[in-house]
Amino acid sequence: MREQDLIRAVWTGQSFVPDGNYALAQARDRLGDGQVVNLDLDPERTAKSHRHQFAFVRTAWMNLPEHHLGTPYAVSTEALRKYALIQTGYCNTEMMAMGTTERANRAAALLSRVSTNMHGFAITNVIGTVVYCHTPHSQSMKAMGGATFRDSKQAMLEYLADMIGVTADELAKMGKRGET
Fold this sequence. Notes:
The chain is α+β, with helices and mostly antiparallel strands. The chain is built from six helices and five strands.
């Protein structure tokens, strides 16, 4: 995170104005008169929001119903997080038409191994003669903007809550209790 580099500003409709005395003092200390700066217009992402997401994913993982045990996504919290990203549509999907079911099954096995090695988790399936491979989007600061992160976090919260049989609010609260 680079929060100490940021100066919080408010858009007035015509210009950006430092938000409060502290932000104004930061701007005066660090910028010269007439200095041009680049603005990062990505809505704020906080470390607290990231920690909360990882906390509720961990809580969901610890409370997976028995019938999920032994599945690839139940091996770790990271696998469950990536599985939830794919299941909620925050993924890339590659498709290969293979001509025959036998070729599709062989290609799926290879594609699954390669994609899992590259992304840490992948869901690969064959429908007829077509192979589909889904890999999760990265939630790194560089790869996923603030608004998309918030949307993916909410979608995952709802998906995982349903998976363990609680409401999204209940899972969010359980995650906050586990957050450090």
